[in-house]
Design a protein that fits this description.
Mean pLDDT: 80
Strand content: 15-25%
CATH topology of the largest domain: Aminopeptidase
Largest sheet: 11 strands, mixed
Distance between the termini: 124 Å
Number of helices: 9
CATH architecture of the largest domain: 3-Layer(aba) Sandwich
CATH superfamily of the largest domain: Zn-dependent exopeptidases
Strand order of the largest sheet: 2-1-5-4-3-12-11-13-8-6-7
CATH class of the largest domain: Alpha Beta
Structural class: alpha/beta
Length: 377
């Protein structure tokens, strides 16, 4: 065999294999980093509708691409699994109502054992990292457009969320990077932002977005008022899936107790949304582009109550403890003032400190003797 034939026998099969791999869309997508794939880019226009395979009712709508195997937990905790996708319609079958994961038994101790050490025991509370992979997203009724490259209304919603958390004593690191353009590379760019937030000792992460569906899909009556809803998104393709899913379920559980209807649902979607980097990471869809920014800001303020409840314990319990301490201090001050008043009266009536002491001693001995006598009887 000459040298030329040998090279052809070795190189030619390799070239054919490489060509087949590059032109195979399944293999190409499988090897593409999930944060760069179309999976997390969403739709260029329009949205998906998830329907029940049995009664054909609409379960939810989302601008995120829905794939077979995706899961959804509704606001009423009905669990669905997508069985097929036809165009922009995803057909899902109900697995019935589920019991959500319980919140921590003790504030600051997560059942999975994955809660950061900073949140355990008597250490400082967790630090929340807030960022926006799609920072250009805006709210049409308030911002006049659905996207602002310099920074959309979603950044204001993030600021409102961070401010509400800080008002409750939870430290927050909030990034206002926009990561424009709104394309498949946005999650790669926001990955670097999340790394920076991790270097700032953030423990729990919320990637704040808004959806792009009709406004009524994210509107519910909460505490008697029409309220913009929030949806959790958990990436199915990362090693932290079970922890993040448990976090989403238990956080919804807490929020449902405080503000029933505020959480629209939990979408377990294909992709990872940078949730592979750390446990306790969620993507939030705060309303839709057709909801108002002001409404979204009010909703994240309510949600901050639930986050604080989750990590720092019930507000009511802390308020009761504070009230108890305040009441005790008040009683002690009253006793102190009374003692000072009695001391001043004795000093004035006797004319000297020595005589005041003697009179007080005589009074105490007499009262104590009478008290012992009553005890003997």
């Amino acid at each position: 065999m000459n040298k030329r034939k040998f090279i052809l026998l070795i190189i030619f099969p390799l070239l054919i294999s490489l060509l087949l791999f590059v032109t195979d869309p399944v293999n190409a997508e499988a090897d593409m980093p999930l944060e760069l794939s179309e999976v997390e880019h969403g739709l260029a226009s329009g949205y998906y509708t998830m329907k029940d395979t049995e009664d054909k009712s609409v379960i939810m709508m989302t601008a995120r691409i829905i794939h077979v195997g995706d899961e959804y937990i509704t606001g009423k905790n009905i669990h669905y699994i997508v069985e097929r996708v036809e165009g922009n319609t995803a057909w899902a079958r109900s697995r019935g109502q589920i019991k959500l994961s319980d919140p921590p038994d003790v504030p600051g101790i997560f059942k999975s054992g994955m809660l950061p050490p900073a949140a355990q025991g008597n250490n400082p509370p967790v630090t929340i990292g807030v960022f926006h992979s799609h920072g250009a997203e805006a709210y049409v009724p308030s911002d006049g457009t659905e996207s602002i490259p310099e920074g959309g209304g979603i950044l204001d919603v993030g600021k409102a969320f961070a401010a509400a958390l800080e008002d409750k004593g939870l430290p927050v690191n909030h990034s206002t990077e926009t990561h424009v353009p709104h394309d498949a590379g946005a999650y790669h760019r926001s990955r670097r932002t999340k790394e920076e937030l991790m270097r700032q000792n953030s423990d729990v992460f919320f990637d704040v977005h808004r959806d792009a569906v009709p406004a009524e899909q994210y509107t519910e009556i909460v505490e008697g008022k029409p309220t913009v809803q929030i949806q959790f998104v958990v990436g199915r393709q990362n090693q932290n899936l079970e922890v993040n899913r448990g976090f989403a379920e238990s956080l919804k559980n807490v929020t449902d107790q405080l503000y029933p209807g505020l959480i629209k649902g939990i979408f377990m979607a294909r992709g990872n949304y940078n949730q592979d980097m750390t446990p306790l990471s969620l993507l939030l869809e705060v309303g839709s582009h057709e909801n108002t920014r002001e409404g979204a800001e009010k909703s994240v303020a309510l949600f901050a109550d639930a986050v604080n409840f989750y990590f720092a314990g019930p507000e009511g319990a802390r308020a009761q403890r504070t009230a108890g301490v305040t009441a005790l201090r008040t009683v002690l001050w009253i006793i102190l003032i009374a003692l000072l008043a009695v001391g001043a009266y004795l000093l004035i009536s006797t004319g000297s400190i020595e005589e005041a002491r003697a009179k007080l001693r005589s009074f105490m001995e007499k009262e104590f003797a009478e008290f012992r006598g009553r005890l003997k009887r």
